[in-house]
Design goal:
This protein has 17 helices and four strands. By secondary structure, the chain is mainly alpha-helical. The protein has one domain.
Length: about 450
């Protein structure tokens, strides 16, 4: 029974990329999998199903406590403002991490095949929707490409921000998902890159197809965060080969195609996805010394720090995952210091999110999470190329989440954590096999 329950949790989490959300209350969105996950959480919690945690899950214990402080702060914030959507999100992430800890005893057999099947489905649905919207679009190609750069309803950002409302039986998309989905795409890329370059006997056409689809989808996205992670993974992994000019031929072909494609887009001045976003950023810096979205983020970070001069107790406990409470504190601070006309309404950084929602305790626990995570991954780096690639991916997540919060999302939190569990289970199983063989 326990094994089948773990299998169910695994399947519920790994299939998130191919599922849209349902708006069950105003502002409250649920994956179809989440009611079951919440039920399993209570079974785990009250049934005391987690009896042993291996050492490699130590980072997640820190993360769990960081979320516990956010959950506690959210409950306390209800004395001022009630935010049901915020409370649900805080509780949901706590449920997710509890389920991840519960999977410590799962063997992850066939994980990579399942991962790739889900990824292929997610990519095909996303890109087919992109093509369908293009074919049914009333305007010209240039107008459509412009929309796919700036309009959230047209950006090919997966299914996790596609919401079905039970109130009017219609679909809509929420903003801010392109970095989350783009980071997931990089994870798909590194899995298939590993299989392509390091395990030739296991290479299939699916690996080539997935890498191609990932690159296409990344180019169509407008996520600078995803581009940064993609570059970090590739540069760190191939730095020795790049310096010594020893790149594998198929990877060299991919680079040549990418360079030619980017040059074509730039020469023709096509308003196209990520490239347009980068051009816009460069132009903004040249003309005004900054870029609007980036400026808005810096402003809200400054206001968060200044708010503690007015609300010092919140430095310890935070404002909770309570948008009304947070916005009120930031607006009051801005009015008091008379600083900005415009600023972001959310922290726009994983680290500032922890500080603002859970206080100093949550931020320190998050830093402990990353410290323990890097410590573990550095030890596993030489075990396989996939372990090394995931280390670089984690470095990219750490850097990019300074200006984003992709790890604090259901989709990426689940896929990142499952991948970390798989790598550690693989290492432990091989280590035990070697030990017993020698014995």
């Amino acid at each position: 029974m326990l094994l089948s329950l773990k299998r169910l949790v695994f399947l519920l989490l790994i299939t998130l990329p191919v599922t849209f959300k349902i708006e069950v209350l105003p502002g409250v969105f649920l994956y179809p999998q989440e009611p079951l996950l919440i039920l399993i959480f209570f079974i785990i919690f009250f049934g005391r199903k987690i009896t042993y945690l291996p050492q490699f899950l130590k980072p997640y214990i820190y993360f769990l406590f960081a979320l516990f402080f956010i959950l506690l702060s959210t409950v306390l914030s209800f004395f001022k403002y009630i935010d049901i959507a915020g409370l649900f999100k805080a509780f949901k992430y706590f449920v997710y991490l509890t389920c991840i800890l519960f999977l410590a005893g799962y063997d992850f057999r066939g994980y990579l095949k399942t991962f790739n099947k889900v990824a292929l489905s997610a990519l095909l649905v996303t890109l087919l929707l992109y093509v369908y919207n293009w074919l049914t679009f009333g305007g010209g190609t240039s107008a459509y490409l412009h929309l796919t750069t700036w309009d959230v309803n047209y950006v090919p950002s997966g299914l996790s921000n596609l919401n079905f409302s039970i109130f009017n039986f219609s679909f809509s998309r929420s903003a801010g998902n392109h970095g989350i989905y783009g980071s997931y795409l990089v994870l798909v890329y590194l899995v298939n890159l590993y299989l392509l370059l390091k395990k030739r006997e296991e290479v299939t056409k699916l690996n080539y197809i997935l890498i191609g689809l990932v690159v296409i989808n990344l180019v169509l996205l407008t996520s600078r965060e995803s581009l940064l992670i993609f570059l970090i993974v590739n540069l760190f992994f191939f730095i020795k080969d790049i310096i010594s000019f020893r790149l594998k031929k198929h990877y060299l072909y991919l680079l040549v195609i990418l360079v030619l494609f980017i040059n074509y887009v730039l020469i023709k001045d096509i308003d196209f996805g990520l490239i347009s976003k980068i051009k816009h950023t460069i132009q903004s810096y040249q003309e005004s010394g900054g870029e609007q979205n980036i400026n808005l983020r810096f402003r809200v970070w400054m206001l968060i720090l200044l708010s503690y001069s007015l609300y010092p107790f919140s430095l310890l406990v935070g404002y909770g995952y309570n948008q009304l409470n947070f916005v009120d504190a930031i607006a009051s601070t801005n009015n008091y210091y008379d600083l900005y006309k415009h600023y972001a309404s959310v922290p726009e950084s994983l680290f500032f999110l922890m500080l603002a929602y859970g206080g100093l305790f949550s931020l320190l626990l998050l830093l402990a999470f990353f410290f323990q995570l890097f410590n573990r991954l550095l030890k596993l780096k030489k075990f396989s190329a996939l372990h090394e690639l995931f280390l670089y991916f984690t470095i990219g997540i750490f850097i990019s989440n300074n200006t984003g919060g992709s790890l604090m999302s259901d989709l990426l939190l689940a896929q990142f954590s499952l991948f970390y569990l798989f790598l550690n289970k693989w290492y432990v199983q091989e280590e035990n096999f070697t030990y017993y063989s020698k014995g």
